[in-house]
Amino acid sequence: MAANEQSLRRIPAFRFAVPAALAVTLVWGGAIAATLWVRPPAGIQLTAQFGHLLALCAGFGAVLVIDTCGLLFLTGRQGAAQTMRVVSAADPVVWLGYAGLVVTGALLEPDLDSPLTWLKLAAVLVTGLNGIHARLLTRELAALPGDPSFGGLSRAQRVRLLLSGTASQAAWWTAILVGFWHNQAASVA
After folding, report:
1. pLDDT tens, residue by residue, 33-79
2. Range of the domain at 150
3. Rounded CA gap, 5 and 10, in Å?
4. Domain-located, residue 57
5. Where are the transmembrane segments (predicted)?
6. What is the pTM of this model?
7. Domain count, the chain
8. CA 132 → CA 53, 85, 109, distances in Å?
């Protein structure tokens, strides 16, 4: 088990979740505020787009690995212990990708007058907040004795896992597709 997972387990859920959710929300809001007052230097747009694409590949790629392992766990093809090992390894990559997307997204000068932009921004916030919930779930499952199957979890744990996985995919895909559609509309105009 990774040292960061051991130290995370010692922190009561409330003491981790509230500051983490506040940090995600403040960074998200700060990135939006930065777009209002900071103009990136000329020529940075292409670099920011490339960085945004790299961060998307890293973050969403790691999410797909985690969610695929979750699906294997759900269907009984993989145990909780193996799933937790993969989640522990991929989680930092998700957060690095997420942070990269927030920073480079601010440099892309989003159109804050567009409802599509706000839909994407809301999906980005949901992604971050759900990531905190998923981390708490991971900690809870890692603390269970033995190697329980999905069916061996409590009903509440099963529901939370299903809702978290669904929210993860819905928020990531919403942000990706809205960003793509909005970019296509802007390039045509």
Report:
1. 999 988 888 889 899 999 999 999 999 999 999 999 999 999 999 99
2. 3-30+63-188
3. 9
4. no
5. 12-38, 50-74, 86-106, 159-181
6. 0.87
7. 1
8. 23, 18, 27
